[in-house]
TrEMBL record:
Protein species of origin: Alkalihalobacterium chitinilyticum
Listed name of the protein: CBS domain-containing protein
Occurrences of domain CBS (ranges): 8-66, 72-128
UniProt keyword list: CBS domain
Superkingdom assignment: Bacteria
Any Pfam family: CBS
Length: 142
């Protein structure tokens, strides 16, 4: 049985609370990703997604200099490295999330995306189910 530590990305790019929306958007472009964790001293404070930037930033006419803390999602669902891949896939489907921050001892140690789960044999059914469930709910923020 595989655990999240076996498939998680450990070299996670992040921003800090003092960064602004423009800096996060540039990092998303550089990393070709749609979500950036917000951390301070390794501790996960929130997550900002491309959707957050559009809905809470652009649509509310906030300037690019707006601090990320003003538009990030703060109530995050997280997992530990010891969680099984199957349990993570089920949780992601139930909670309707595409990216799962992995936290250990209050520190961000990795991240697992739905695509990471989909490429592992034995979890294709769970990943397909999670994707179909998540795709039906546009209000999900991370």
């Amino acid at each position: 049985m595989e655990h999240l530590r076996d498939i998680m990305t450990t070299d996670v790019e992040y921003c800090t609370p003092v960064d602004n929306v423009f800096e996060v958007a540039v990092k998303m472009k550089q990393e070709d990703c749609g979500a950036i964790p917000i951390c301070e001293n390794g501790q996960l404070l929130g997550m900002i997604t491309d959707r957050d930037i559009v809905i809470r930033g652009v649509a509310e006419k906030r300037p690019n200099s707006t601090q990320v803390t003003e538009i990030m999602s703060e109530k995050l669902i997280t997992a530990t490295p010891d969680m099984t891949v199957d349990d993570a896939a089920k949780m992601m489907a139930e909670k309707q999330i595409r990216r799962l921050p992995i936290v250990e001892n209050n520190k961000l140690v990795g991240i697992v995306a739905l695509g990471d789960i989909a490429v592992h044999r034995g979890t294709m059914d769970e990943a397909s189910f999670a994707l179909s469930e998540i795709s039906e709910s546009p209000e999900v923020h991370h």
